[in-house]
Amino acid sequence: MAYNDLITVYALGNDEIDESKCKAIVEEDLRRLGAKINRLHIHKSWKYFPHVDSETMAEGFYDKLEDLQSVNNTYYGGEIMSFSSIEQCIAYSKYLVNKFF
Ligand SMILES: Cc1cc2nc3c(=O)[nH]c(=O)nc-3n(C[C@H](O)[C@H](O)[C@H](O)COP(=O)(O)OP(=O)(O)OC[C@H]3O[C@@H](n4cnc5c(N)ncnc54)[C@H](O)[C@@H]3O)c2cc1C
User: Fold this and answer.
1) Pick from 20, 42, 59, 92: CA 20 to 30 A from residue 98's CA?
2) According to the model, what pLDDT value does residue 83 have?
3) Is the CB of 45 under 6 A from ligand 1?
4) Ligand 1 atom nearest residue 83's Cα
5) Domain map of the chain by residue range?
6) Is the Cβ atom of 27 under 6 angstroms away from ligand 1?
7) What is the pLDDT of residue 29?
8) What are the tens digits of pLDDT across the range 25-77?
9) What is the pTM of this model?
10) Which domain of life is it from (predicted)?
11) Kind and range of the H or E element at 2?
12) Are the CB atoms for 84 and 48 separated by under 8 Å?
């Protein structure tokens, strides 16, 4: 991999694949692709879409949140209102602007 000495990898873990297992799988995959790993610069973990759990959502979290839009001239946007993707964020932002402005 002479054309790029720095490789960035994003991996989705789960309850069975913890940080160290995830790291081992990625390293093994990189070696199979022919990469020589000299140094790991940074390894960071975070929760995916950590905003609302299933139970809270089923209890009408989003209906309550929608009812708060425009109260006290305050508006809520970003991925918490839609989903963790740029397309969903844009779609919701357009909906918000069309509805209130
Ligand atoms: C690793 C990763 C890969 C992803 N890949 C994709 C992909 O391939 N395709 C896709 O569609 N989506 C992808 N996403 C999801 C997408 O990036 C997010 O859903 C989207 O960026 C969320 O937009 P947002 O406006 O809610 O938050 P952000 O884009 O995070 O914007 C929030 C902004 O607010 C700023 N901010 C935070 N606190 C303050 C403060 N107190 N004062 C002032 N500013 C503040 C932050 O610096 C940031 O610029 C990815 C996300 C991650 C983490």
Assistant:
1) 59
2) 85
3) no
4) 19
5) 1-45, 46-101
6) no
7) 95
8) 999 999 999 998 999 999 998 888 778 888 999 999 999 999 999 999 999 99
9) 0.77
10) Bacteria
11) none
12) yes
Quote the tokens at residue 31: 């070696």
Q: Which one, of 82, 16, 81, 11, lies nearest residue 46 by Cα?
A: 11
Question: For residue 3, what pLDDT band results from cuts at 50, 70 and 90?
Answer: low
Ligand 1 centroid – CA 24 distance (Å): 27
CA gap 100, 75 in Å, rounded: 9
User: What separation in Å is there between the alpha carbon of 81 and the centre of ligand 1?
Assistant: 13
| C-beta 26 within 6 A of ligand 1 | no
DSSP assignment of the chain, as one string? -TT-S---------SSS-HHHHHHHHHHHHHHTT-------------SS-S--HHHHHTTHHHHHHHHTTGGG----SGGGS-SSHHHHHHHHHHHHHHH-
Inter-residue contact 27 to 37 (CB < 8 Å):
yes
Task: Say what the pLDDT of residue 13 is.
Answer: 83
